[in-house]
């Protein structure tokens, strides 16, 4: 939202004491849509992410290699889902700038949350496309280091966004979301191709691969649904007028992206609840010592 603040302050200094909603009073539809989506995100996302944390804690002995990334993504999403009341007040009622420091920090957390989703996609990509190399890297320490580095990058970015004194800082998000989107699409298409190539056969292992194929199709669709709008529109920000970009495009794109805080945990929960019927625990345990175990371990993919 600070991008809009820059635009309006450069257009007309007389607007600086108006709320963001007042600045878009002639075209409020997109802001209303955004706020409705944010409150839905809060009401649905918090319990869904808490349930994800509870289920992962409950099944620690049978956890997958991606669970460490899923846990931290759920924690980050819970924090972000707490912000709608303050965000609503800042957009509609408050004209002071102090509250925006907190809001921008939470925006920064959400902006770079796709990094955890990228880690999950990379983990699944290695498991399916390079299973032999993957088995050599099934080390909790390596994933903990990856989580630590990811959190460091996210917090540094959020702190810098909070300060709002770095010129053209919004371009960092555009570059990051474009790169992460391309990376996630590449990983998931590669997974789909590998699973499609190995989906023939009638044994239990191939039935699990077919289920994994369907799961990855859903994941790819959600990645496109949540992250394609900002990827497609933000690089062309300069082609729109400041009013159109701030009052329409900016809010609609972020409404879809931010709703991933609800869609991602719901997808995870649907997979966990469906897993026992599709593949009993004994089936997974039988494959623990199989060289193709990594290919089939998709039960906890987000």
Can you summarize this structure?
The protein has helices at 2-11, 20-23, 29-58, 67-81, 84-92, 98-111, 114-129, 131-136, 140-163, 170-197, 204-233, 242-258, 260-278, 281-286, 293-296. The chain is mainly alpha-helical and 302 residues long.
Which terms summarize this structure?
about 300 residues, mainly alpha, Rhopdopsin 7-helix transmembrane proteins, 15 helices, disordered C terminus
How would you describe this protein?
With 302 residues, the chain is an all-alpha fold. The chain has one domain (2-14, 26-296): Rhopdopsin 7-helix transmembrane proteins (Up-down Bundle). It has 15 helices and no strands. It is globular. The two termini are 28 Å apart. The relative contact order is 0.15.
Architecture (CATH level 2) name:
Up-down Bundle
Query: What separation lies between the terminal Cα atoms?
Result: 28 Å
Q: In what range is the share of β-strand residues?
A: under 5%
Determine Rg (CA atoms, Å).
Answer: 21 Å
Approximate helicity band? over 70%
- Report the total helices: 15
- Count of distinct structural domains: 1
